[in-house]
Amino acid sequence: MPTYQAPLQDYKFIIEDVLNTYQDYATIPQFSDVNSELMDSILSEAGRFAEQEIQPLNQPGDIEGCRVENGEVFTPKGYKEVSQKYLEGGWTQLSESTQYGGQGLPYLLNGAIGEMNLSACAAFAIYSTRDGSIAAIEKNASQDIKDKYLPKLVEGIWGGPMCMSEPHCGSDLGLLRTKADPQSDGSFSISGTKMFITGGDADLGENSIMLVLARIQDAPQGIKGISLFIVPKFLVNEDGSLGERNNTSVGSIEHKMGLHGSATCVMNYDNAKGFLIGTENKGMSAMFAMFAMVNRSRFLIGQQGTALAAVAYQNAAQYALERVQMRSLTGPKNPDKAADSIIVHPDVRRMLLTQRSFVEGSRALNLYVAKLFDELDHHPDVERKKHCQSLLDLLTPICKGFNTEMGWECVNHGLQVFGGHGYIRENGMEQFVRDARAAAIYEGTTGIQALDLLARKVLANKGETLQIFTGEINQFCQENKDHEMVGKLATELKAATAQWLAITMNVGMAAMKNPNDLGAASVDYLMYSGYVTLAYFWVRMAKAAADKKQSTPFTQAKLQTAQFYFDRILPRTATLEKTIQAGSDSLMEMNEEAFVL
Ligand SMILES: Cc1cc2nc3c(=O)[nH]c(=O)nc-3n(C[C@H](O)[C@H](O)[C@H](O)COP(=O)(O)OP(=O)(O)OC[C@H]3O[C@@H](n4cnc5c(N)ncnc54)[C@H](O)[C@@H]3O)c2cc1C
To answer: Cys-Cys with 194: which of 46, 112, 267, 481 at CB 3.0–4.6 Å?
Structure first.
């Protein structure tokens, strides 16, 4: 049975020593009282909840799965009770606006707590987050709608599933067919079928406030004719009480590879009552509403990569200390035993340190991104807000695409450390592999994140956004190039950053001549960007560790892991540099028919 320990020491180190959070929050009036004591106590209690309440749901929930009876979805045993405790603890309200019953604390807390919950039980944790839906409503809906729906969403007693995908469309939402017919009372009649809807329905809340994408009659074809609606399972009366049952139903739930405790629903809308968010027939503004939601949701999915890799790493590291097989290449390390622990073997260490360097590097990236959301939402300086928006635009697809791909690699390393015992259900490592796989698919596949990064976020503005981030990296490298312990890493990082810009320029030029070169380069470009981004956070962590007054096992491990990252992970960019610039000829030459020869 796998175990989980909340990484509280690492959070404290990243939040305080690496990101200098409290110094920065002092410039934001809303957070001027936020300090180490407050954050530590909240995170420590959240860690306890994740370890003691959520984690025990993980393996039994995977075995039991969800079921539908008489059109109602039932989650595995224990989910409802723990969900109730989670709501009673006020955990869904932490960083939400005080105007709607939230506590107005930093989103950074959600970043850390989100990771812990996902590590403890990913299938359960997905139900408890409504950040994206709340952001979409808060930023785009009329005041009436906000007042009506947000307090209960913030309180957590209503769910907020995102209903975009349909059987024939996922990546290409322009193909969607769900219809919205205007009604005389100002509402819309929604008809159609959505597929793959996470928590489309569940027995955890009193109501389900579905955010549904649909096409209003006579709207333009494609992506420009899409609007966003709220479609509640139970209609909500003017006084906020629940009214009649809307014409929505669960067609079925999917039987899937992992995340068995998370109900993935086919949702049917049969002239269901819906309410427009944003402006009628303004497809693009509805999409902007969606992007407000999508940015936060993509960030959350990116965290799944970190979270599942983290728990897989913890269990693999413990196992590697205990499992004895063969002798060290340099002679017995434990002559009293029949064999040495497998942790003596360089290849086992390669797997463990690959996991560790990804987990801690991406954790620093995630918390940095969560802090950007805080500054975007609350910083008094408009220029600073713009700066944060640019960084978020660039880093969201990296968080989502790179973290989930690396997360998948790392849970596989975790399983491999266990050998055959990793392949057996009882030890829990194969569940992490199955659960982690979906994260590289939903909220836009890695291919879609890569196109978003390269085409929309980088090339569309001629690399301006990228240069904002590389400018920050270069400034850091310049300031630390002579640092006794990390100066060499900073110099290597500076070179990798210069190469990142050069490759971007080359791909941009190639894409102007042949657009397929852009598509051919995109996923490798995403991964390249991720490796350099994590290298930045590794040098920042190494510097913070080196600058600590006292060297401890924790700070030494940070410095050693940083060195490992630069020796054995960052060099992956050398291959990617070649494949990114290899063009598209060898991909596109083969006839379509030849693929099935
Ligand atoms: C467990 C789970 C939960 C989900 N939860 C939700 C949810 O809550 N709400 C919701 O709306 N949806 C949800 N989804 C759906 C998910 O978002 C889609 O599956 C995903 O966006 C991909 O769409 P698709 O499956 O239709 O694949 P397709 O769009 O058919 O893509 C197939 C392949 O083609 C590639 N591809 C497509 N277009 C391009 C392109 N232009 N360039 C390069 N490659 C391309 C893709 O990368 C992919 O590899 C969920 C899916 C799963 C598995």
So the answer is: 267
> Which amino acid, 441?
I
Please answer whether residues 379 and 388 qualify as being in contact, where contact means their C-beta atoms are separated by less than 8 angstroms. yes
The strand ranges marked E within 258-372 are 264-277
pLDDT score, position 376: 93
> Can you read off the two tokens belonging to residue 403?
């973290």
Q: How far is 369 from 92, CA to CA, in rounded Å?
A: 19
Contact 2, 59 (CB under 8 A): yes
Q: Which CATH number fits domain 143-150+158-282: 3.40.50.2000, 1.10.10.10, 2.40.110.20, 3.40.50.10330?
A: 2.40.110.20
Distance in angstroms (rounded) separating the CA atoms of residues 379 and 439? 31
Atom of ligand 1 nearest to the CA of 448: 47
Residue identifier of the C-alpha nearest atom 37 of ligand 1: 171
Closest to 199 measured CA to CA, from 247, 146, 158, 166: 158
Distances (CA, A) of 269 to 171, 213, 266, 501: 21, 12, 10, 47
Reduce the DSSP state of residue 180 to 3 states and report it: strand
Residues with CB under 6 A from ligand 1: 161-165, 170-171, 196-198, 256, 259, 264, 438, 441-445, 447-448, 451, 519
**DSSP at 102:** -
Query: Mean pLDDT of residues grouped by 10 in the chain (597 residues)?
Result: 97 98 96 96 98 98 97 97 96 93 95 97 91 83 93 93 94 92 96 96 94 91 89 95 97 97 98 90 49 78 97 98 97 95 98 98 98 95 95 96 98 98 97 98 96 96 97 98 97 98 98 98 98 98 97 98 98 98 98 96
pLDDT of residue 292: 61
Given this model, what pLDDT does residue 367 score? 98
Of 8, 15, 7, 5, the closest CA to residue 541 belongs to: 15
DSSP 540-580: HHHHHHHHSSS--HHHHHHHHHHHHIIIIITTHHHHHHHHH
pLDDT for res 283: 42
Instruction: Give residue 136's pLDDT.
Output: 84
- As given in the structure block, the two tokens for residue 22 are 């409290």
The CATH class, in words, for 8-139 is mainly alpha
Q: Which ligand 1 atom sits closest to the C-alpha of 254?
A: 1
Predicted pLDDT at 129: 77
C-alpha to C-alpha distance for 173 and 214, rounded to whole angstroms: 10
Q: Which sequence positions are flagged as catalytic? A: 443
- Determine the distance separating the centroid of ligand 1 and the alpha carbon of 397, expressed in angstroms: 15
Q: Would you put residue 101 in left (φ > 0), alpha (ψ -120 to 50) or beta?
A: left
pTM, entire model: 0.97
For residues 546 and 466, what is the distance between their CA atoms, to the nearest angstrom? 29
Angle of CA points 222, 227, 230, to nearest 5°: 145
Please state the atom number of ligand 1 nearest to the C-alpha of residue 451: 42
